[in-house]
């Protein structure tokens, strides 16, 4: 038995040394580390989240635009209604004695209406004056505000 141990024991020791060397020299993880894998996963999730946010913002902008900007057909119908209303007001105003409409046929403001706006503005009721002017002339807010500020 001693002869067998003298042959097998060095062979086992040699196999253990070779296995230890091969294990020590072989890379532990041929792929990416856990930290790198986590960072990549986090970056992909962040990119997907950002893409969803951009898509939601674009959808919201489209809904807001659709609700605030009327279509061309709706704009034409609105203009036709406004024109019909203005013609009716002009016909009604010209049928009576004197002219009481806020806007004269030449597009100028009636002096009485202008004095009324001036009185409102000077008494601290600028918002009411702007509202009255916008209702009478169908002008936008900026134009009406600038006009009232110059009174």
Secondary structure tally: strands: 0
Radius of gyration: 43 Å
Silhouette: rod-shaped
Largest sheet: none
Order of helices and strands: HHHHHH
Helical content stands at over 70%
Number of helical elements: 6
Query: pLDDT average, as an integer?
Result: 82
Q: Helix/strand/pairing class, anyone? A: mainly alpha
Low-confidence stretches: none
Q: Give the oligomeric state.
A: single chain
Kindly describe this structure:
- The protein is mostly helical.
- The chain has a domain at 104-151.
- The protein has helices at residues 2-25, 34-68, 72-95, 111-122, 126-137, 141-150.
- The longest helix has 35 residues, at 34-68.
- The radius of gyration is 43 Å and the shape is rod-shaped.
What's the short version?
The protein has helices spanning 2-25, 34-68, 72-95, 111-122, 126-137, 141-150. The protein is an all-alpha fold. The chain has a domain at 104-151.
What's the structural blueprint in terms of helices and strands?
Layout: H1 2-25, H2 34-68, H3 72-95, H4 111-122, H5 126-137, H6 141-150
Helix pairs in contact: 4-5, 5-6
